[in-house]
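Re: the request from the purification team.
They wanted to know what the chain is likely to look like in 3D before they choose a buffer screen. I agreed to run a prediction and write the result into the notebook, where they can find it.
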Amino acid sequence: MRRVRDDCGRELGVPRRPQRIICLCPSLTETLFSLGLANQLVGRTRYCVHPQPEISEIPSVGGTKQLDLVAIEALRPDLIIAEKEENRREDVETLASRWPVYVCDIQTIGGALRAIERLGSLCARESPARELSARIARDWASLPRLESAPRVLYLIWRKPWMAAGRDTYIQSTLERLGCTNLALELDGRYPQLEPDRLSALPVELCLLSSEPYPFAQVHRAELQAVWPSAQIQLVDGEMFSWYGSRMLPAADYLRAFVDGLAPTSGR
């Protein structure tokens, strides 16, 4: 057993080589697979859907915010990995009274790269973690940027409208692509917008995420009527919001996304 500190400054004791890991964050679950920890992963949430088909063999312990404590107990974990935004503080505290719970707090691209290496260290997979982090860093360093810095609103919910704002991984991604995020002018990490406030924003590009709200063409048409001159696009939410190993395919997706906005894009 060794003592470590997680991203929230909590000190906990963890096995030197954890053998029964439960992960409560979808993108981190996929990352654990990428680090070669499939045999050590004994539990995940129902929102942990990658990689397929391997993930279907891992028992579910409920949702990220509706955990099944009985199922967790039955799996006898020696390490639980959580994420500050994905999981509720009260659930983490309940779990931590029984088992080691390591909480990640990922808000930026740099933070995502560091989290990969910390997970590698935590789970005795240092070398593959460094390799994965370095590969992602190289791919993302070569991404093009939008020279025009379009005024963007990235919507994640409807009724009420909600956007991705400050201190979020999505904002870090938008910034990397050269976007000007209008939600930074609003209060909160995921500000809510009443219809009149929404229509008053000088949106040039509105991105409708596929998750957590499943935006579709009907919503694209609805918002095109709000901003007739703006570009309204449906986007793959995983590519903008999932950190960890999903950042590898995300690099190709985001490159194509920027190139598709030409002639406003540049390198």
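For the purification team: The chain has a mean pLDDT of 96.
Please add any questions underneath this entry.
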